[in-house]
């Protein structure tokens, strides 16, 4: 609060704070301090009303404040502007003066068909305001002298809305803009981020979840996963899909016509020199005639298609290797791949190969082959492996969706509920969030059988299986249900005449409630807080963002959405501190459905890992706070499952989670221990990478070599003269002369000597070279203006883990600057993809000379000047290097070889982004 005045010097206040940090209270405090008429814009009615209800913290305790009894200086209607007016963004479309009612009332994300959508944003980001709407809006603000605009959940305003709001600020020069969000769009494209910053201004304050736990503003919490096996029907679909793919691949493998097509590809036919697969030890070692080498170089120099699609070339080589055919030397040489580096023929290679044959003209098919391809397409469509232009040999979108919404996850919700209710009892305050309602069965007399994951199926399962069925409620925009024994309590919080109560025929003793959604939400929240209900099942579009219920201590994310913004918003529902509950500890459950017998049945695992990359939490491995699935310390079990498909992964993991959950009473102490760092500790975006020892000695070796050459030249002449005169002076004199010359040479070359010592010391530690790369990157980012914080105020951090891996980060700047550094660092250390510029340095691998490649980060590759700036910074800190522009003929050759490293396990570099609590 004390820094508000300083941050408002540019008429912008941009606050990023985790859910539960009190952004609403902060916004109201700004309103109170500035004493300006304010308009608050929110994405939903629920959040809109929370601003008005939070006024109870600013009015006398005896005031009976409610939505129906607001102070005369507060309003939730744009047609009734008061000193504090709270409305939704959508209201600007529907209720601006002089406008037709284009939208029925205030279109809320949580009603009707919108509730069935899995779109991330609860408002139309591309709609903005039309010109006449904008003029009406500006006129309205000026008429009522509104000089404070508060944007709640400002991360939604990334497209057209920023222009409208920015125009308002330009037309009303004394307007102050306050932007509040828990999840700024750090993962958006560069242009979107620039627009967001132009609207909201630079981030003034950032408050992370660990900081708030440390300040006892958020509660201690832990993430758990609950694993289930796919049900029999889903497993049959997985097995049937795998069998279709396997049969197709085997059929193509045995088909001589398919082999002929592959062998006729121009890359295979470029020369007549082919060797047996077993004889290929690497294109570099092949014994071929000079004209064959020339053919190979010609192919590489002219084959733009090879540069654009090297994955196809690798797929062709994998196929030829698998059928034990002869490998084309030219292609192996062009790709810089040897026999061991060519991957085994798998689904990924089949996908590339078949796609190229049926969708492109790269194979230059003859008439007979064209007929065969048409036949192949018909076969693929008949087996449902081809839909329009989407080939499904690696993965099936429909199958993946079926797994993510598996009916087995409904049982998982019940199992978790039973576990939590057993341990927490009457203190359980559980929320289950889904993406869909799935209430079709209530609207139809036709039995559709089992349905996928959704509010209604989960609610049914809980009501039938829970020990406290009467204490379970369901809330969504279209369907809300409560046990009839809770009706009296419910009616205390709503205007009874506005509600319709209908007995539910599908569940005896339960009723459906129909009425204003904002009142429904308020009432259900109050019932959950009071303990009238212990469990609330709802949609994440209604309750997943902005909903304020500090009592929640158990959250089940039965949602398939894994984006940075939504995941953090949903988790925020459970980690708020409840002043009425001492030592609150929350559990957050993630659902995983697998079929361990098939790789296709384990897609959900990959999606779950991605979700864990979007937030930080307490590690089960030690006293650390970090992002990533690794912190759960269960990766070893996944590796065991991959080795042995009979391994009982489901039982093992759930047993492990039960044990971890049973230790939840120790969570507060473990959080406290992990947070006990320097007072300046914070969450920093970091890069986790294996150490790169090859870099460390290159710079030293080159500098030492240069000095040694100079010393050899100087000493050579002196030693020759001394030996010539040794007949007269003796051996002692010769040795003395040589020693003096050596000392003199070192003094004469003192700058180079000092450089050697300094360079050696810089690169000597295991993490030394990574730190030098970090220095180079940080300097380049500052010199280019991408980072505004002064370089002297920032520190490049490297932390070596017990297993030799290293974590690199940049501290001292803003969160965005640290995130930008980490993104660029990941590009530098990761496998080469298709950069515009790259750095090439000579090095050694296993005693053999080999070029080493590093991508110039995208931010620097947009302009030649920026790429050169980065290259110069690299030379200062890391090693001599060559900057290559990859869009020239020669550059394409070098890039092609660099990209091939990604296909070889020899060069596998497991670099990943993660956020960590550190100084």
From TrEMBL:
InterPro entries: Helicase/UvrB_N, Helicase_ATP-bd, Helicase_Restrict-Modif_Enz, P-loop_NTPase. SMART domains: DEXDc (SM00487). GO terms for cellular component: cytosol. Residues 4-202 form the Helicase ATP-binding domain. It comes from the Bacteria. Pfam families: ResIII (PF04851). Keywords: ATP-binding, Helicase, Hydrolase, Nucleotide-binding. GO terms for molecular function: ATP binding; DNA binding; helicase activity; hydrolase activity. Transmembrane segments: none annotated. This is Superfamily II DNA or RNA helicase. The lineage of its organism: Bacteria, Pseudomonadati, Pseudomonadota, Gammaproteobacteria, Cellvibrionales.
């Amino acid at each position: 609060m004390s820094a508000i005045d300083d941050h408002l010097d540019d008429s912008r206040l941009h606050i990023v704070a985790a859910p539960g940090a009190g952004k609403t209270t902060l916004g109201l405090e700004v309103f109170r301090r500035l004493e300006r008429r304010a308009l608050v814009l929110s994405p939903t009615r629920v959040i809109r009303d929370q601003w008005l209800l939070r006024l109870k913290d600013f009015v006398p305790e005896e005031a009976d404040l409610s939505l129906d009894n607001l102070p005369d200086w507060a309003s939730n209607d744009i047609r009734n502007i008061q000193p504090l007016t709270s409305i939704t963004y959508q209201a600007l479309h529907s209720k601006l003066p002089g406008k037709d009612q284009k939208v029925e009332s205030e279109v809320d994300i949580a009603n009707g068909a919108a509730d069935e959508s899995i779109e991330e944003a609860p408002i139309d980001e591309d709609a903005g305001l039309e010109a006449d709407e904008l003029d009406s809006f500006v006129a309205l603000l000026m008429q009522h002298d509104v000089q404070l605009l508060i944007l709640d959940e400002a991360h939604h305003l990334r497209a057209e809305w920023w222009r409208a709001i920015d125009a308002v600020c330009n037309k009303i020069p004394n307007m102050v803009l306050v932007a509040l969000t828990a999840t700024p769009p750090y993962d958006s494209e560069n242009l979107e981020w620039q627009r967001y910053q132009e609207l909201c201004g630079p981030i003034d304050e950032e408050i992370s979840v660990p900081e708030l736990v440390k300040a006892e503003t958020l509660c201690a919490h832990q993430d758990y996963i609950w694993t289930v096996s796919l049900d029999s029907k889903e497993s049959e679909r997985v097995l049937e899909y795998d069998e279709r793919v396997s049969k197709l691949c085997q059929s193509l493998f045995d088909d001589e016509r398919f082999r002929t097509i592959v062998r006729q590809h121009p890359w295979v036919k470029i020369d007549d020199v082919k060797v047996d697969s077993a004889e290929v030890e690497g294109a570099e070692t092949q014994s071929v005639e000079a004209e064959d080498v020339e053919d190979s170089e010609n192919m590489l120099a002219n084959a733009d298609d090879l540069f654009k699609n090297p994955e196809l070339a690798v797929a062709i080589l994998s196929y030829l290797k698998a059928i034990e055919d002869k490998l084309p030397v030219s292609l192996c040489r062009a790709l810089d791949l040897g026999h061991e580096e060519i991957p085994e023929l798998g689904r990924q290679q089949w996908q590339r190969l078949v796609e190229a044959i049926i969708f492109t003209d790269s194979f230059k098919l003859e008439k007979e082959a064209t007929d065969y391809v048409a036949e192949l397409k018909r076969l693929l469509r008949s087996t449902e492996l081809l839909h329009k232009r989407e080939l499904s040999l690696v993965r099936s979108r429909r199958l993946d969706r079926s797994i993510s919404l598996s009916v087995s996850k409904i049982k998982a919700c019940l199992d978790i509920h039973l576990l939590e209710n057993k341990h927490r009892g009457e203190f359980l305050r559980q929320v289950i969030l889904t993406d869909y309602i799935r209430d079709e069965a209530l609207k139809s007399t036709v039995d559709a059988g089992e349905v996928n994951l959704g509010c209604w199926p989960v609610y049914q399962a809980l009501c039938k299986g829970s020990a406290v069925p009467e204490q379970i409620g369901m809330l969504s925009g279209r369907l809300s249900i409560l046990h009839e024994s809770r009706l009296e309590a419910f009616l205390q919080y709503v205007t009874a005449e506005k509600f319709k109560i209908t007995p539910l025929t599908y569940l005896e003793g339960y009723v459906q409630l129909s009425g204003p959604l904002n009142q429904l939400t308020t009432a259900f929240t109050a019932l959950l807080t009071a303990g009238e209900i212990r469990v609330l099942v709802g949609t994440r579009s209604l309750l997943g963002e902005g909903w304020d219920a500090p009592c929640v201590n158990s959250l089940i994310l039965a949602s398939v959405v894994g984006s940075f913004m939504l995941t953090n918003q949903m988790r925020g529902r459970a980690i708020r501190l409840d002043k009425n509950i001492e030592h609150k500890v929350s559990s957050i459950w993630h659902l995983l459905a697998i079929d361990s017998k098939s790789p296709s049945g384990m897609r959900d695992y990959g999606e779950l890992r991605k979700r864990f990359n979007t937030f930080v939490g307490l590690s089960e491995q030690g006293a650390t706070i970090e992002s990533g699935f690794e912190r759960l310390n269960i990766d070893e079990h996944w590796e065991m499952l991959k080795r042995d498909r009979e391994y009982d992964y489901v039982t093992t993991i759930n047993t492990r989670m039960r044990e971890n959950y049973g230790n939840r009473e120790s969570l507060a102490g473990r959080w406290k221990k992990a947070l006990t760092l320097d007072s300046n500790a914070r969450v920093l975006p970091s890069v986790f990478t294996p150490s790169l020892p090859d870099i460390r000695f290159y710079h030293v070796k080159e500098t030492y070599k240069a000095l040694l050459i100079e010393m050899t030249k100087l000493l050579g002449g002196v030693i020759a003269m001394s030996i010539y005169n040794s007949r007269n002076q003796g051996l002692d004199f010769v040795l003395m002369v040589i020693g003096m010359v050596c000392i003199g040479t070192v003094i004469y070359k003192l700058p180079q000597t000092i450089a050697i010592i300094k360079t050696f010391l810089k690169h000597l530690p295991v993490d030394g070279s990574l730190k030098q790369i970090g220095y180079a990157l940080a300097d380049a980012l500052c010199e280019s203006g991408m980072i505004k914080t002064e370089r002297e105020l920032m520190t490049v951090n490297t932390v070596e883990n017990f297993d030799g891996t290293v974590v690199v980060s940049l501290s001292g700047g803003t969160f965005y600057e640290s995130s930008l550094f980490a993104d660029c660092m990941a590009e530098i250390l990761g496998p080469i993809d298709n950069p515009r510029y790259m750095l090439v340095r000579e090095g050694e691998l296993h005693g053999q000379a080999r070029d080493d490649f590093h991508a110039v980060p995208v931010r620097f590759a947009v302009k030649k000047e920026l790429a050169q700036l980065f290259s110069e910074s690299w030379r200062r800190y890391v090693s001599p290097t060559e900057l290559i522009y990859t869009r020239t003929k020669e550059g394409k050759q070098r890039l092609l070889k660099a990209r091939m490293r990604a296909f070889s396990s020899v060069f596998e570099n497991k670099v990943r982004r993660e956020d960590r609590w550190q100084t």
